[in-house]
Amino acid sequence: MHPVSLCNVGKVYRLGAVEVPALSDITLDIRRGVFTVISGPSGSGKTTLLNLIGCIDTPDQGEIRVAGRAVQSMPDDELSDFRARHIGFIFQSFNLIPVLSAYENIEYPLHLAKVGAAERRRRVQALLEAVGLESRRNNLPAQLSGGQRQRVAIARALATAPGLVLADEPTANLDSQTGAEIIALMRRMQREQDVSFVFSSHDPQVHAEADDVIFIRDGRIVGVELKREVAREVVREGALEVQGERS
Ligand SMILES: Nc1ncnc2c1ncn2[C@@H]1O[C@H](COP(=O)(O)OP(=O)(O)OP(=O)(O)O)[C@@H](O)[C@H]1O
What we know:
- This protein has helices spanning 46-53, 76-86, 102-112, 117-130, 146-158, 176-193, 204-209, 228-234, and strands at residues 4-15, 18-30, 35-39, 61-66, 69-70, 87-91, 164-168, 196-200, 212-217, 220-226.
- It is α/β, with parallel strands linked by helices.
- Helix 4 crosses helix 5 (146-158).
- The structure holds adenosine-5'-triphosphate.
């Protein structure tokens, strides 16, 4: 099963009488256990595509399946629960809760997923160590550097052990060295936690680390690049077939 499948997906934003077509005829399967980058110029539809995959927004056309479930037919309360358990989010502006410490920010999604106190402590502790922030556990976001904030955001995204993590331009607000460290950390976490990562980015450092790159322009897929030699290392049995391969 693919972590994400889209079939003929389209999205139009409506601003009064004006229609802005953001995505058209998007058909693709994201492979399991790999690092996929959605690449395209500003305004090409990257964020819209991530928002649809993340069930933050709904398409006007087509079908989206996440972890095998047709998400647009789920009732709202079931969808929020599904999203909390199956999908982690990382944003370019970190989106941490300013009044909560690093520890509490990572713990927050575990509260939403109704994980018990002892298990919450165990997971948050393990994640703080994994992202190298044990000594900053009590710091508020304002008391952390940009790279440290993004590390907290990565740990938070992985807290519920989701099968899928979505990241919208995760290195956009970081200098190139910190960006490289963050990519390396995400790469390591993706491999260790056996999770599928989907990024939007035009950062060449992110492209270089990707297994698969999906190129979009004016809301349409214009190319797909699969780095198979990398993919073979990380893809699990049965996950190699790809739909929508274009060049
Ligand atoms: N809420 C909205 N209302 C109306 N139009 C929108 C809205 N959000 C995005 N758009 C339009 O949809 C198109 C795709 O936007 P989107 O933000 O998905 O692009 P993007 O590739 O993520 O761009 P960037 O790299 O600049 O973030 C653009 O033409 C944009 O102006």
